[in-house]
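for the record, two folds in this file. i put them one after another cuz i was lazy. first one right below, seq on top, structure tokens after. the second one comes after a little note so u can tell where it starts
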Amino acid sequence: MRRSLTWLLLTWGVTRLLLLLVVFKVYVFPGPDVTSDVSVIYQGWYDVLRTGTFPQSDVTWQYPPAAALAILSPALLPFLEYTQAFFLMAFAADLAALLLLLYAGLRPGRRLRGAWVWVAGVPLLGPTVYSRYDVMVTAVAVAAVLAAARHPKVAGALVGFGALLKVWPALILVGIRRRSVWASAGVTVAVVAGLFSVAMPGAFAFLTFQRERGTEVESLGSLVFHIARHHGWNGSVLLNYGSVEFLGPWVTAVSTAALALTGMAFGLLLLWRLAATRFEAHTAADAALVAVLMFTTTSRVISPQYMVWLVGLAAACLCFRGSRMGVPAAMVLMACFVTVLEFPIWFADIVGSTPRGITLLIARNGLLVLATVIGMRELWKATVHKPAPALPAPDQTEAPAQEASASS
């Protein structure tokens, strides 16, 4: 155990040092500069948020109100420029997630495999991890999942706060039965949302900013148009609502189909929740990973930073010896490697719908689909009792013979 822990910490230190050297531009990572979102978009939001209001006229602001805290967090390091401070705050969130996973993995009956998933998965995604605030949200979600069994009220508060950071942590509630967790989450959402509504105008303006979204070029549905471009489809690829999307004929239909597929996925989750009868310590983590896989895979948008969510939840699952998410977790790690190839390294091929770009998307999205299907199957097998086989009815033709034998 001591040797494994030493290697784990050493690997984390080396890989994170490399990530910091890349985002600080000591080394140049292949492809477009992914840190520009911090220096341009995030810093622009920071300047608005500091005035005490949300970016009410900026359609790229599509986040719940507590996201303001993540964007404002570099103010805790006033002696640094905004971008430098943001990278260090992302690094701190990465470290916090590691410490949570180590604490969980070193407990009796647990294991360090979950921490290894986090150590390996984050650098596989490249500098994108430290250039988005998703790593901060993921740290909160990991804390919530790991606290669910022993500290339900704390877990509920973390889920509620995470949902106000970026919505998806609310899916953690899918696999939790304790009413105290749900109640704590509801109270946290109500209190924090209420405070933001009173203190800062435009807290919920983001709800109207995604009405005209298209299909993002990395999503599962985008494969329709990547292939259709080679057969005469005359749409376009444009920066729209903060992401590169397909716009043109049939895009609305494909986007609607993606929303319908998401609805069907959540219908399946509801069916599982009603049928499940066995809930163990790891069930909440397993269900959270499956639910977020479903949401991510069927979404109109699969941004590279979404993979950070999956790495964090997969790591939380594998802290438990009883978790059945080993294969989905391995597929998530493979998908992370393919993701860094398609963004940022060969993102021009994605935008241009080249054969290489299409191949990368088929590989990455195919891995996510397989991970989702296998994860749902394993979750169902682990938690839903099969009906007991009916006993064969006694043979009625033998009854008279038995009675005659007894009477004689």
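(here's the note) second protein begins now
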Amino acid sequence: MIREKVYKDINNTLDKHSRFESSDFKIEPNKDKSSSYTLLTITYSMEPKYKIIFQIPTSKTSDKEGYSVYYAISGNVCPGPLAYEENFSFKGDTGIFTQITTWLNCIWEELSSNPIVKKVEFQQQQIEEIFERFESIKDEYFSEDEAKELRKKLDKLEETLKEQIKQNQDNKKEFEKQFENLHNDIDTLKQTIHSFKKKGWLKSFTTKVFKWTKDSENRTLLKDGYKVIREFLPEDIKSNIPDLE
């Protein structure tokens, strides 16, 4: 079995983290009499899928030359630094505490990222709903008259957003930065009117609108992003765009 000191050091490692307490976790050793290893599992009680499992040997291993001996420890973790589930291995018992700290950081990254990820997923769902409505549009390029009208609408939209940015941004440098990004987006849309067919261009426009409205502090720039999108759609499908609020 694992020494009490190891449990104490594990608890101290958990308590040292700024986001967690040792009481948030369940520590369970499991030693099979027929095995030369003890499985030590640490589970995050609030979200049991987050766990780290150490395979701790009962004896040390020596290198090929026999110059050093060490505990060869392996295991798996969820979440890992890169993948949702990862395997790991290291030499020496002190690596246990480093591995736990890394795991705790990964848990916090998952917890703090979750609302952002869900927001992105919801936004993507909204975009896909609009894309589905574009299927009824003819697979053709904009005419010269249609392109001219779109450019006028884009110019008007740029002026409207520019004024809104000015009202909501006191910092001159930040205003210039935001307006430059907006201008580049608008110019890209203008330049690609004849590069894409109607459906492709409208999809590009849709993603730009959602980009401009993705942050809550920027919602004032466009009160209703989907209404702006509808204004750029052919009259015959405007009424079919779903209410995204």
